[in-house]
Design a protein that fits this description.
The chain is mostly beta strands and 142 residues long. The chain has one helix and twelve strands; from the N terminus they run ββββββββββββα. The chain is globular.
Length: 142
């Protein structure tokens, strides 16, 4: 007798009202302004921001306001969940998103940035600040 399984496609949690959480500033300066469905981060060039989670729900917007198109911000996820981008990510500069648990862009995601890098690999702060983008395997979770 064959076994049969039925799977339903439930919306992932990030499709709901989700914005990044738990930001700490590792390098540089940043100010966060959050509204109901949106977040604006004003950051200094080459800022490094650590987040406990970084996902954007389908009806949500995250914007990084930077000095210019050559400015960069490194967003590192320290929590255990993958980043799920279903909403809008925008910036007048470059946005880097590192999450060892993965980064998913949904079908309805909108990205409007001067440059985008996403990875599951790690990048040391000193290499970022020196302009050396030497990625290494992320440490296994404890």
């Amino acid at each position: 007798m064959a076994a049969c399984s039925l799977y339903t496609l439930e919306p992932w949690p990030a499709q709901a009202q989700t914005l990044p959480t738990g930001m700490t500033i590792a390098v540089g300066q940043a100010q966060v302004s959050t509204q109901i469905n949106s977040m604006t981060v004003k950051n200094s060039p080459n800022a490094i921001l650590n987040w406990s989670s970084f996902s954007i729900g389908a009806q949500n917007t995250v914007r990084f306001d930077q000095v210019d198109a050559a400015s960069k911000v490194l967003n590192r996820v320290t929590g255990s969940d993958p980043s799920q981008i279903f909403g809008q990510l925008s910036s007048n500069g470059q946005v880097w998103l590192l999450n060892p648990n993965g980064v998913l862009f949904g079908a309805g995601a909108r990205v409007d940035v001067a440059g985008l890098v996403t990875s599951t690999l790690a990048l040391q702060d000193k290499d970022w600040l020196a302009g050396r983008y030497s990625f290494t395997a992320a440490a296994a979770p404890a």
